[in-house]
Design goal:
It is a single chain. By secondary structure, the protein is mainly alpha-helical. The protein has one domain. The chain contains four helices and two strands; from the N terminus they run βααβαα. The protein has helices at about 5-20, 30-40, 50-60, 65-80, and strands spanning about 5, 45. The chain has a two-stranded antiparallel sheet. α1 (about 5-20) packs across α2. The radius of gyration is 15 Å and the shape is elongated.
Amino acid sequence: MEIQNAMEELVSQKLDEVIDSLDCCKCQQCRKDILAYALNRLTPKYVDTKKGLAFVKVNTMDVQFEIDILTAIYEGVEIVKKHPHHSLPETGTQN
């Protein structure tokens, strides 16, 4: 197993779980931007073995750990909504 940041998988999974309940664009670019925002605010968890990955996943059962991930995701959603990196669809109205 190569060295990987287990936090990437954990945050991505959590984003998949909650994105439908969020009032935000769900396009691939916005999802990547939300994920990048959240990961830049969370402590990385680097592992190089399956045992290490399992250990990190066990620690995700901690309520505060999940709150930290959700908070970073929600903050990311707010930022990305205000500053999307994609073209918004034409609505026929001017801003």
